[in-house]
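User: I'm writing a tutorial on reading structure tokens. Could you give me a worked example: one chain, its sequence, then its tokens, then a sentence or two explaining what the tokens reveal?
Assistant: Sure. Here is the example chain.
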Amino acid sequence: MTTNARAKRGLYPENPPTNEPCAKQSKNGRLVIPAIQSARTNMPLWKAVAFAGGLALGLYSDPLHAAPSSGGDTVQGLYDALLSTMQNGRALGQSGRFTQLEPVIRRSFDIAAMARLSVGPTWASLTEAQRQQLTESFGRYMSAIYADRFDSYAGQKLVVTGEQPAPSGVMVRSQITKANGEPVKVDYMMRLSGDNWLISDLYLDGAISEVATRRSEFAAILKTEGVDGLISALNRKADTLTVSSARSF
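And here are its predicted structure tokens:
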């Protein structure tokens, strides 16, 4: 992945456990998801990316995609698509950006694995139908988040800087430079799935895990509303973001 932007606010106001370093709180008390924050402000760009990045999002969807030969290729493709969408963000509008980015997000991220890890132990007790619904909702939510956060272009840069072997696959290093010139390091954990390298987690500044942050958010919803409540919350947030008006960073 290769070009720039950061994260804004988290989905749920619940506070994560105090020993959970992956989530932060904004002044208004809302949970900040480190992976996706505005690239224009000095707020954590997802702190910088969002999940993402937070991601290969193109202005068009080409039905023929060559399988990436490395994890870096996947991230670079995501960044290229993100930049293209940002550069045409105002013309596309929120729903147009979502339409362009959703297929890119789904082929760049291991949505099923990220949903399972974000739900945590509760996943084992879910029916197959619930797992499928949750995975679908999680994918829609992530796509809507990126369409909302990466909405316009003001000189941001997203660059893959290297990759190295990791116990569970490959770690791809990247840097996002915000519109104000602030650099943010975003690392992507890649897993080989068949012939494709997919993003299974991302880390802001090498420490803040997107999956761990989601798990902290989702735990409170699962406790009070169950899996159906979580599915509804993800779909509701995705719907809200999809119809919201475009904003510049």
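What the tokens reveal: The domain at 24-243 is CATH 3.10.450.710 (Nuclear Transport Factor 2; Chain: A,). Strands lie at 24-25, 31-32, 157-166, 169-177, 183-193, 196-204, 208-209.
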